[in-house]
């Protein structure tokens, strides 16, 4: 019996000790508001894409005649001028064809001379009644056939000479040879498709990016918008360009629909090379020197725990007076207003004034997920709440006595 009473007394003492510890060591749960002041800066919404660097204008140089490549005068990366000889096809067969047709033309001209003389004689005899009309018409027909034959062979000779000229491959533009697809001794056949011998870029100081823009983003992309991009060869360099065209033909790969968007980019220092992969950002909307706050301020909502330290004013959700004012509060000194195309939305932020938390109705514009453009509702000097920090300060840290019923932490190097 005495043993059970002793156990009860010990349990009671431990309970009293625990209660006392929690009473005297109760943590003071205080909070600290995280605030910021609106600031002026630039903001933009953007679309990301990938693409390939290509010259603005590339010409594929081919051949219209078949034969064996006899000479090649240029190589990869050669800078060429318009009219410069690039390659030559073996001319022997074409020269022989020209010579043969030239001989045929001479025969046709000789025959024409004979038929003309015969026709003149037959014409005189017919007028004198020496021959029949049938003989006269036969002579006239032979003369006409001889004239047509000369015209036909003349046309054949012109075609043969043209084919001979096609054996010399000239550059159609000023530019740089990107690729050479033939070598000396190689045979090319132009019977069905024109074979490509060289690929020449007109001007490598002017490049373009063929970006693949997702169908979900292409609605915001328009000609004239600014774009920036990087390439793996120069990761620290940011290249600038301008959107010039959004092509309407879609490209479908693995059920993903993209649209080719052409971006012009200057390449004065020739860092950009054809075929490079570009990581592109297209700025669909931009506003310069406008009032900004963090996106966290829009998401912040005070809870009941803040009521112990601050006075929280009630949120009024009715129509605000003067919301159609022409002047934008807080942006009066900025002449850079949002474009008319931007949809201004309503939002609420919370302003700290002393020990009070005050809701402020604002109108916002662009949102890049980091900052938000403020069109009206707050000023640059306002202290806007973006979050809360919890400060847990126990009485033990302030130097209060610890509970005698709790075990003490051993000191470093002390005797036990």
TrEMBL record:
It comes from the Bacteria. The chain crosses the membrane at residues 6-24. Gene3D superfamilies: 2.40.30.170, 2.40.420.20, 2.40.50.100, Helix hairpin bin (1.10.287.470). Residues 389-404 have a biased composition (Polar residues). Keywords: Membrane, Transmembrane, Transmembrane helix. Residues 321-343, 389-416 are annotated as: Disordered. Residues 58-195 form the Multidrug resistance protein MdtA-like barrel-sandwich hybrid domain. InterPro entries: Beta-barrel_RND_2 (IPR058792), MdtA-like_BSH (IPR058625), RND_pump_MFP (IPR006143). SUPFAM superfamilies: HlyD-like secretion proteins. PROSITE patterns: PROKAR_LIPOPROTEIN (PS51257). The keyword Nucleus does not apply. Residues 209-282 form the CusB-like beta-barrel domain. Belongs to the membrane fusion protein (MFP) (TC 8.A.1) family. This is Efflux RND transporter periplasmic adaptor subunit. It comes from Flavobacterium quisquiliarum.
